[in-house]
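Sync notes, pocket subgroup
Present: LS, DG
LS reminded everyone that the earlier model was apo-only. Rerun requested with guanosine-5'-triphosphate included. Inputs:
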Amino acid sequence: MVDDSSQDFKCGYIAIIGRPNVGKSTLLNHILGLKLSITSRKPQTTRHQILGVKTTDTGQFIYVDTPGIHSGGKKAINRYMNKAASSVIHDVDVLLFLVQALKWTDEDQMVLDKLKNVDVPIILVVNKIDKVKDKDQLLPFLEDVSQKFTFHNVVPLSALRGENIETLESTILQELPDNPPFFGEDEYTDRSARFLAAEIIREKLVRELGQELPYQTTVEIERYKEKEKITEIHAVILVEAKGQKAIIIGNKGTRLKSIGTKARKDMEKLLGQKVFLQLWVKVKAGWSDNEQALRSLGYDTE
Ligand SMILES: Nc1nc2c(ncn2[C@@H]2O[C@H](COP(=O)(O)OP(=O)(O)OP(=O)(O)O)[C@@H](O)[C@H]2O)c(=O)[nH]1
Ligand SMILES: [Mg+2]
């Protein structure tokens, strides 16, 4: 008998777009059921495009998490992040435009203006509905935002609590083209374990540090060696100035130690293996506003 099961199979790319902090990475992690993309309460957490692949019986969803599109911030790193987000807009099959319930800002409008002349179906995802105390306010907001553009669909949900996410996934499936799967069944990202390890450290930094400092740090993996029973990782946290180094190290090294312990635990969960993590802090002045330095640190600025 001929196996024609692949005929009904759908596969395509879905970009998750929006201003910083609306919950793009949280949504991706919830859909995948694992912590792939780093998240925090602070805006501008995600810096790179990252693919998250979910395969079901009926389709393969290739999500692209992106950095929050933002105004202000004139450094090379800001340009890099905005470009990393904007560059995928034309190259996907579906766009998820994330906003926060009851909160429409100038940056949301800026993102929508970018999306308006794109020939890709756009699903408006209204996130964080769990924060809406008075549910009567939700409907007028949904009506109001629906007027702003002819969206293919409007889906209110909570990425954090996992409310209404199945509705979103079935809405997306309808928009995906007929294709065989592009990725293997057990593949869930295009990123290396080395990249993910650096991101985990950056998440702990962003979560641990005050408002400004996270933007001035990046992480470089100097050694990544998989041994039989343990993975050995040496990482350097790069900062812009000497004072920042002292803040990260903390009193008697306590802050760096806590960052290292938390990062190591997450890495062990992700890799399913013991990790030996060594962390250093180094000053590399001006890295965030220097295209060449960014490139050497693995930011693809082309
Ligand atoms: N209450 C609530 N909080 C949420 C929800 N989704 C995300 N958050 C929180 O919002 C904050 C930002 O989430 P992220 O997923 O990092 O947001 P992002 O859009 O990826 O942000 P950038 O990477 O900076 O662009 C985190 O503190 C999340 O826990 C939600 O549905 N409800
Ligand atoms: Mg993010």
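DG: Strands lie at 10-17, 50-55, 59-65, 94-100, 122-127, 153-156, 218-226, 230-239, 274-283.
LS: The first strand starts at residue 10 and ends at 17.
Action: DG to write up.
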